[in-house]
Amino acid sequence: MADLSGKTALVTGAARRVGRSIAEALARRGMNLALHFNRSRRESLALAAQLRRSSGVRAEVFRADLRDVPEIKRMVARAAREMGGLWALVNNASLYVKTPFETATLKDWDDHMNANVRAPFFLAQAAAPHLRRSRGRIVNIVDWSALRPYASFMPYCVSKAGLLCLNAALAKELAPEVLVNAVLPGPVLLPESMSAGQRRAVQAATLLKRLGSPEEVAKAVAFFLESADFSTGAALTVDGGRLIA
User: pLDDT tier at 201 (50, 70, 90 boundaries)?
Assistant: First the structure.
């Protein structure tokens, strides 16, 4: 079991939603946080201040547009330099846009593949020398739809399937120094555009008959960082049984 206290994690898309819960969970375990953002500067600064107050850890913000590979490389280098190294990378930032089959465009495909597959690859590539030195870990936030795609989100689902493959490929490439694992959330934070009836239907489709929470995803991330010393290339569903329902 790894002692996370004093180690540094870079969490992408950390300002809101699941990313925020991951950052809070890791801070409670004593981790220092490099909080990535693109447009959510104010929320990121507020989160960093909150983590310093509540957990006494070091928390700093780092901006990068993950569509820009040179920006990714500069951001990771700066985070590692200013934080005194990296022990973990959590690839949380993601694009999730409804794209019906009949109207999906090349831009829809490029946007999803760039955000959900290409960016995690280049983040891992840039972080790898630091993670190898520290014998650290990577956790990729995938989606249950990587294994069971659903309608009207084809570019998203296929890009998450690509990230699941990347998870295994990185585990092979970075072994034995770096452990690489994936968390596959199910219905956790639903789109705000969903009606009450649609939300009830999603909830009923899970075996546990409820929606998950960002905190439950964060617990799975913490498990891979803290306790899964003999797991790499693994994928853990956090979906209330939705995958097999």
Answer: very high
